[in-house]
Amino acid sequence: MSGYTNRVILLQFPELGDKVSVLLRNPRLLPPAELTPEDVPVDANGQPLDPQAANVAMYKVMANLIAAWHVYDATATAGAVHVDLDADDLDAQLQALEGADQVRLVDITPENVARLPMAIINRIGEEIGRVADPS
Description:
- The protein is α+β, with helices and mostly antiparallel strands.
- It is 33% helix and 14% strand.
- It contains four helices and four strands.
- The protein has helices at 51-65, 90-99, 110-113, 118-132, and strands spanning 8-12, 21-25, 66-72, 104-105.
């Protein structure tokens, strides 16, 4: 078979869950236009004037790279169960929090990328960063 090899990269996150994974198109094999975020206005030091706009621009790049995933909404359980750390039944409350249903993200969109845990976002960012610094 001719063509490029290693066209996809499987990122697994066993520390987050048994099946948590992201399948990325290999950023090293993509043209620069697919890895360049939308222009975001910056200040004199090169820092984005609107950090949220910069995040959204990067989430769009990441969503475009993701071919498939088995991930959960990190924001779904944040308010699902209130835990009172001073309560007598703290163990029961913590078990309820751990047992709360998690919402699986199906559609790969910039909005859903924004719902990923930082561990996953950082790892995808590392893969993108390897294009500029392949060491």
